[in-house]
Amino acid sequence: MSVFCGIDWASDHHDAVVVDDTGSLLAKARIDDTAEGLTQLLQILAEHGDSAGDPTPVAIETSRGLLVSCLRATGRPVYAINPMAASRYRDRHAVSRKKSDHLDAMVLANILRTDAAAHRRLPADSELAQAIAVLARAQQDAVWDRTQASNKLTSHLREYFPGFLGAVAVRREGVCHPIARVLLAAAPTPEQAARLTRTQLRSLLKKAGRKNTIDAEAERLQTALRHPQMRQLPLVEQAMGHQTLALLRQLDAACVSADDLAQAAVQSFETHPDAEIITSFPGLGPLSGARVFAEIGDDRSRFADAKGLKAYAGSAPITRASGKSVAVLARRVKNQRLAAVGYVWAFAALTHSDGARAHYDRRREAGDRHTAAQRNLFNRMIGCLHHCLNQRLHYSEAAAFPTAPGTQILDAA
Q1: Per-residue CA distances from 305 to 80, 281, 301, 358 (Å)
Q2: Is position 410 within any domain?
Q3: Are 179 and 245 in contact (CB under 8 A)?
């Protein structure tokens, strides 16, 4: 007799049920989110046939948390069911739209009983791969936080200190650059910035890490900061300066976090055997490679073929057909993190690979817009990556973008 477990999780407790292959309820319990609760759950599973040789599959509406991690560590197959999918299944069991934690757990267990093949179990990634995923995702979150903090500060400065934005606009990082942040911390208002002497500016540049052409840069900054501009009323300007310092502290924290996490993610990633293969691809460095690896992991059985990985990354298109109507559209349901780094990867590959550039140009000539052409290039590259990781091969430009007639293409669409 096959048994299936469904768990409706919450922040402080979880409702668990066990059903057999006919859908009959065998056991139910509400467990705490503690070690004792986990022991109680494992005991219930053991009483109904769970063993190391025949582990009971578990369905739950999340892929994170201590409970999920502990269940994965025991070797049990864990299925993270999308809450939207689970809500559709609920109507099959209760058309009255009633809802309870116990009913939700029953729904999850029955999803595995009837449609386990339609859902993907969590991958059996190694401990190192899971650690890299934590660091890479945290670093990406920190970058997004840094961008948000930078945009807030830039928008605020535009309201009373546009001259500062003009002074630091020569650098791509804008207000995120160390020189901009050190300078703004010393003079958060136009009045204070205009009073800065060249000696003070040289000192601030050295504090920010500038080593070359300090005198010329100090002269340029002094001229830019003393250029006439529109001003707020004195007291209002002073108050906005205080707000700038508060926003600057948030930006400083985000910058430090992003840099520290980037270093930690790269160090961990470079110790993994897959790192050399991933970074052999044009456009993928240690940090972007760590982000790609964080989303695909090192469980080679996770994707049966390259098409599965392409769909997961969102690079493969989706076809909607009904009668005589057929539409090929960009895929919206995807791993957003992998899709984000894929856009960066494809863009960087254009200047590091002649084959990638030629492929992009062909797509543009065929009528694709920039984003669609880059997505198609990403689709090609990630298919090659799937092949190389499974065959333990480094990237080959000649194999990925063959020019000779009849040459085998690794990732047929």
Answers
A1: 21, 19, 9, 26
A2: no
A3: no
Sign of the four-CA dihedral 87, 90, 95, 99: negative
Nearest by Cα to 360 from 376, 384, 337:
376
Residues 142 and 254 in one domain: yes
> In this structure, are 188 and 117 located in the same domain?
no
Write the CB contacts of 26 (distance below 8 Å, at least 6 apart in sequence): 3, 18, 19, 20, 48
Number of domains in the chain: 3
User: Which of residues 267, 287, 306 is at a domain's end?
Assistant: 267
Range of the domain at 317: 276-400
Counting every residue written for the chain, the total comes to 413
- Tens of each residue's pLDDT in the chain, 413 residues: 689 999 998 888 888 999 988 888 899 899 888 889 889 999 999 888 888 888 899 999 888 888 889 888 888 899 998 888 888 887 776 666 677 888 888 889 989 998 888 888 888 889 999 999 999 999 999 999 999 999 999 999 999 999 999 998 888 888 999 999 999 999 999 999 999 999 999 999 999 998 889 999 999 999 999 999 888 999 999 999 999 999 999 999 999 999 999 999 999 999 999 999 999 999 999 999 999 999 999 999 889 899 999 999 999 988 888 888 888 888 888 999 999 999 999 999 999 999 999 999 999 999 999 999 999 999 999 999 999 999 999 999 999 998 754 544 444 33
- Residue 117, in any domain of the structure: yes
267, 284, 310: which is the final residue of a domain? 267
Q: What is the CATH number of the domain that holds 69?
A: 3.30.420.10
Residues 106 and 143 in one domain: no
95/195 same-domain check: no
Sign of CA dihedral 341, 343, 346, 350: negative
Is 43 a domain residue?
yes
Q: Cα separations (Å) of 293 from 32, 78, 297, 313, 325?
A: 34, 21, 5, 12, 38
Q: Is position 302 within any domain?
A: yes
CA distances from 349 to 149, 309, 408 (A): 29, 19, 21
SS3 321: strand
